[in-house]
Specification:
Elements: H1 7-28, H2 31-38, H3 42-48, H4 52-59, H5 63-77, H6 93-107, H7 109-118, H8 127-146, H9 154-177, H10 181-208
Helix pairs in contact: 1-2, 1-4, 1-7, 5-6, 5-8, 7-9, 8-9, 9-10
């Protein structure tokens, strides 16, 4: 009689896959590495997942990138037209959205790292660039409300792209390097201050000077 799939074995395989995809990316993660981490065999893995793509889908369901995109977007939208994010209290929607994003990222560390840093060769390879473009668009909308006299030249928009690209890469790096929740929170707090300072300087510079011809 064939053995019935065991939930604990399935869970161990998916957890091992999460670690492998997070560390090596989709292309370089191997099924041999995954079964070794899970303490099982290739033959047993195939009873649960017939191929690498099926296992990858179990690790990263299609709903997850949409949820991460939504949470990142909510953080920017929550600024509304505030001109100084440093003075916002902990009950402000921006602070609340930031906390939800951080807790979500820590709880789903491997998935977030994969999407931000390791997605090359997978169907989610464009994710990081797409999220940067989305956040830049939201930031421009925010800046126009908070700084009505502001003018964005192409060069300044490119500067904003570089700021958000750096933020996304740094968030991924923090999730890789800071293994405890306390260290992760401290690093993200420092990153956020640096990020907001850069945005404030860019918007203040833009609002105070007319664009170059």
């Amino acid at each position: 009689m064939a053995q019935r799939p065991k939930p604990e074995v399935r869970e161990a395989i998916v957890h091992a896959a999460a670690l492998a995809f997070c560390e090596h990316g989709f292309e370089d993660a191997t099924l041999i590495d995954i079964v070794n981490r899970a303490g099982t065999s290739i033959g047993n893995l195939y009873k649960y997942y017939p191929n690498k793509n099926e296992l990858f889908s179990a690790f990263l369901p299609p709903s997850f990138p949409k949820e991460l995109t939504s949470r990142l977007s909510q953080q920017v939208r929550a600024l509304h037209a505030e001109t100084n994010a440093f003075e916002l209290d902990h009950q402000h929607p921006y602070r609340q959205a930031s906390e939800r994003l951080l807790a979500f990222s820590i709880a789903h560390r491997e998935r977030v790292v994969f999407l931000l840093l390791r997605a090359k060769g997978s169907k989610y390879e464009p994710f990081a660039a797409d999220i940067v473009r989305r956040l830049v668009g939201l930031a421009v909308g925010y800046a126009k409300k908070a700084h009505p006299t502001l003018v964005f030249t192409p060069a300044r928009r490119r500067a904003l792209v570089r700021i958000y690209r750096g933020f996304v890469l740094a968030l991924g790096a923090i999730l890789v390097e800071e293994r405890t929740e306390k260290a992760c929170r401290e690093a993200v707090a420092l990153l956020t201050r640096y990020h907001l300072s850069g945005l404030a300087a860019l918007f203040a510079h833009t609002a105070s000077r007319s664009p170059s011809p």
